[in-house]
Write a structure and sequence with these properties.
With about 675 residues, this protein is α+β, with helices and mostly antiparallel strands. It has 22 helices and 22 strands. The structure holds adenosine-5'-triphosphate and magnesium ion (MG).
Length: about 675
């Protein structure tokens, strides 16, 4: 039996429109509308149900509205059919009502298929019939959108229709995964990565995908151990390395809490000088030597320009240091031994002119002031040498932020020297001490230390992934054992390195290299901060780099995925740049309020279900989904889940699990203590 469209609509009718406003429709349900389960639209389904959909036929197609509120209200007279008024006195009569948000239009295309579009242009008028969608219509609503490539779950309120997403939308404009502890955020994030890779995987190879996970709790190690590169604090092949020479000047300044007036300029100068003189630029030996010699010439000239530099007590030790450096270069750059020897001789000559030196009270050699004529030959010989190898590399070429390698101990010495030259050397004591303390800490040095074979290109290859990434699509950076003092700075350095690398990739290739940076427990790293503070704390600086990525990352193919249980503590800038949200259970008022402010007014009703969502269920809304949708995320089996199981007190107490297996939890504090104190290597 086939129905005419009108008969068909009549069979699906559940009520009529009673109130219309652009963001709200009120529907009075018919007496005979289903109550509990509806069987008139295909597969039996719960009706009326919060967050389910209803349709209202208009000339442009069906308006799709999402149920936000259901109630029984007293109506002044019963809604009855076929009864005339026989003069009876009507008593208030309970009627079922529901309130719904209009979301979009469901249109039928030329192939008789339904297509959902966001936005409603024409609204229904009062009295129009309200329909329950058929299975086909429901599927068209839930499965709307183009490029639905990755199945992330199913929608329990829409007949378990598949929820599929377009990765360009989900990752391209940043995603925030928010929810209480245990609500399933980490599983969803781990799942999104795994399902995306599985969907994109060509037959016999790995996809050209890049995910970098910053994992403060070390939860993801287990999941991606065999599928990606996992870095953690330690001394093995997978030890996390973020050398000090990667730090940019802002990171140095915030770590040392340098004061803007005196210390910041000095620190920047020290960085410029050490970087211009440093660097293992293996591919261009001459350039490296040029940089080093240039830096000596530049600082020599600066000394001379400053006027007071011929004072023996300052200038003498400086010349000695230059001589030492030049002799070291001569050993390293064996092709230039003779010419470098000439420079070293010129310095020796200047240092040993008659009456230049005297013996100090403490028995050491002191220097008298230097006559200009004695210094000029050094300058000349350096200049002559530089012209033979390509000329002076100007200091302006060096930006204090370029990651050119340097020796961190030399850097500390250099700052010390610069500080001593200053009229108020005590201004810099704290700064120098902080750097030296860091250099002396073995825990920190295992991450920050200068390893001879670490180069910028090697780091980029291992952490962002090689070509096509032959070394795996996922990088897990386990931050769990990074000392608290440097965990923010390490996170910040990794993030800024990734961002800048992709920025430069874009500059060179004129196209982007799609990469996703995942930040677990984002509230610790992307924490709100006070902007007016003079000295930005390390955590503020860390947050700023994420703000920058959130604002500009999209242009360079860098998407961020933030996961947090405290959305109200996150930086508002970063949150407002997230265009998609996967909201798990949120029961805290403050967090709920914040989340509701992120979504348009007419969708707020949907979020009322947030406090009661079971784990693994979430609401996906924003750019990635045509309309807000309730998702039950795909199941992950135990080996695919991040390691964050609830502690099993009872099983440990009783020594048995549910299946009767023995549960052992031995204690070996000796080993832990030894490891803690660095006695185990
Ligand atoms: N997609 C899923 N498949 C299977 N189990 C899941 C899934 N999502 C959540 N779970 C279950 O929920 C538990 C908690 O999830 P998860 O660790 O992801 O929560 P969380 O929100 O990250 O918590 P926290 O904020 O404490 O890190 C998991 O141990 C798992 O048992
Ligand atoms: Mg988690």
């Amino acid at each position: 039996m086939t129905f005419s469209p009108i008969e068909h609509n009549a069979s699906l009718r559940i009520g009529s429109v009673e109130f219309v406003s652009p963001d709200e429709l009120k529907v009075c349900l018919d007496l005979e509308a289903p109550d509990g389960i509806s069987a008139n639209a295909g597969i039996p389904r719960a009706f009326p149900r919060i967050n389910s959909y209803v349709l209202i036929a208009t000339e442009a197609g069906y308006i799709v509205a999402q149920v936000e509120w259901i109630a029984i209200e007293k109506t002044p007279f019963p809604k009855r059919k076929g009864f005339q008024d026989y003069g009876l006195v009507d008593l208030p009569y309970p009627t079922r009502k529901l309130r719904a948000n209009p979301l979009g239009i469901l249109k039928q295309n030329s192939n008789n298929q339904f297509e959902f579009q966001r936005g409603v242009q024409s609204f229904p008028s009062i009295g129009e019939p309200v329909l329950i969608p058929t299975d086909q219509q429901l599927q068209a609503i839930v499965e709307s959108g183009k490029n639905r490539r990755i199945k992330i779950g199913s929608s329990p309120i829409a007949g378990n229709a598949e929820v599929m997403i377009d990765p360009d939308r989900l990752f391209g404009r940043h995603l925030a995964v928010l929810g209480n502890t245990g609500s399933g955020k980490s599983c969803s994030v781990a799942g999104l990565i795994q399902w995306s890779l599985a969907a994109a995987r060509p037959k016999d190879s790995e996809p050209n995908a890049r995910f970098i996970v910053l994992d403060p709790n070390g939860e993801y190690t287990k999941v991606f151990k065999d599928k990606g590169r996992v870095f953690h604090v330690g001394s093995d092949a997978n030890s996390l390395q973020v050398p000090l020479w990667f730090w940019n000047s802002a990171e140095w300044c915030s770590f040392t809490q340098a004061s803007a007036k005196a210390q910041v300029p000095m620190l920047k100068r020290a960085l410029r000088e050490i970087r211009s003189g440093g660097g293992r630029i293996a591919s261009d030996v001459d350039l490296e030597l040029r940089r080093k010699i240039s830096s000596i010439l530049i600082s020599l000239r600066t000394q001379i320009r400053n006027g007071d530099n011929y004072e023996g007590w300052k200038f003498g030790p400086k010349l000695e240091a230059y001589k030492k450096d030049i002799e070291a270069f001569a050993r390293h750059f064996s092709g230039h031994t003779t010419t470098l020897g000439e420079i070293s001789n010129a310095i020796t000559k200047a240092l040993s002119f008659p009456h230049q030196t005297y013996i100090k009270k403490d028995g050491c050699i002191g220097y008298n002031d230097f006559p200009v004529v004695n210094i000029e030959p050094i300058e000349n010989v350096i200049e002559k040498f530089l012209t033979t190898i390509g000329g002076l590399v100007f200091q302006n070429d060096f930006n204090e932020d370029i990651p050119l390698s340097f020796n961190s101990v030399q850097f500390a010495d250099h700052i010390d020297n610069l500080a001593r030259e200053d009229s108020n050397p005590h201004f810099f004591e704290f700064l120098v001490m902080r750097i030296r303390t860091m250099l002396a800490d073995t825990h920190m040095q295992s991450i920050l230390g200068d390893t001879v074979d670490m180069t910028l290109e090697k780091w980029l290859k291992t952490y962002i992934g090689d070509n096509n990434p032959t070394n795996g699509c996922v990088t897990i950076i386990d931050l769990s054992l990074v000392p608290a003092e440097i965990v923010h700075i390490v996170t910040s350095v990794i993030s800024h390195m990734v961002f800048e690398a992709l920025q430069r990739y874009h500059k060179h290739k004129k196209t982007s290299l799609p990469t996703v940076l995942v930040m677990e427990e984002a509230h610790t790293f992307v924490k709100k901060y006070k902007e007016e503070a003079e000295n930005q704390s390390v955590s503020a600086m860390c947050c700023q780099i994420f703000e920058k990525i959130a604002r500009e990352g999209r242009k360079f193919g860098l998407g961020i995925v933030l996961s947090s249980q405290r959305p109200s503590e996150l930086s508002p800038t970063v949150l407002s740049q997230c265009n998609s949200f996967l909201l798990h259970r949120i029961s805290n008022d403050k967090d709920q309020e914040l989340v509701s402010r992120l979504v348009p007014d007419n969708l707020r009703g949907l979020l009322r279900e947030l406090p009661s969502l079971p784990s693994q269920n979430a609401i996906l809304l924003g750019w990635a989904s045509e309309l807000p949708i309730m998702v039950r995320m795909n199941d992950l089996n135990k080996s695919e889940r991040p390691h964050s199981d609830d502690p099993d007190f009872w099983n440990v107490w009783t020594g048995k699990d549910e299946c009767g297996n023995t549960v052992v939890r031995d204690v070996d504090w000796e080993k832990i203590a030894a490891d803690w104190q660095g006695r185990i290597k």
